[in-house]
Amino acid sequence: MSAPAKQRVALVIGAGGLKxxxxxxxxxxxxxxxxAIDLVVGCSGGAIFGALAALGFEPEQAAKTAMKLWLGDVTxxxxxxxxxxxxxxxxxxxxxxxxxxxxxxxxxxxxxxxxKFTMFEQTRIxxxxxxxDLHTGKPVVLNRGRVAEAVRASASVPVVxxxxxxxxxxxxxxxxxxxxxVDVAVREGADLIIAVAFETPRQPxxxxxxxxxxxxxxxxxxxxxxxxxxxxxLMHHAEIVTIAPHFEQNISFNDVARIPFIIEQGALAxxxxxxxxxxxxx
Length: 282
Fold this sequence. Notes:
By secondary structure, the chain is α/β, with parallel strands linked by helices. It has helices spanning 22-32, 45-54, 59-69, 80-87, 89-92, 104-114, 147-154, 182-187, 209-234, 259-270, 274-280; strands at 9-13, 39-43, 127-133, 139-142, 164-166, 169-173, 192-196, 239-243.
């Protein structure tokens, strides 16, 4: 008798900002349990940290790199030129490449971690990054070209960072169209999908334009996430196991010092699911 075909396992990491570093803890526990990943799909923050797994970093090495990947001052350099264009759109010619903060530190961190010219074809595990077309609102899946550029596009939080022109399309945060892209893993033929999901936190105090934008963003993505949970439960094409790390306090963009804690929360969230995952995989 021939041996049964190996089940294809996908790790899908949803949007969630810096909290997505928790997926590194989840991934570490999967590796320790002997559960191999055959596909990584990332969206927004999920793409940022999912890239480390896809590129073949060892879990401990990935955790150390994460501290350098997302620099603590990513929202400290204000883009005054963009604000000027927004204030005087007729005079200074406002355009769609608007972001309150400069993305210099984002690019430095991504290129240092992944390599400036590292291509998708060089990843150890097949990797897919979900972004959103600014003009159509539809999700765009990237799996070719430079990894750092694709991740930068997926991390373009509306109003906060400017979108990225890539392959003739203006691309922004994947969370706007597909905050937990399990459908991408289904289309790629995954038999078992491990989905790491995060709810976008609401702003405790909406007193600035940035906080207002983030509050609207949270409302939209949380509603989308709820619908995707419902749709995932109706899917019969693959087994979907959802892991949702829990955080008592809000994790902000600049909480880099808390990354080790965030990673451990991801490991703890994975623990109750390991026996079930191993039974599914025989």
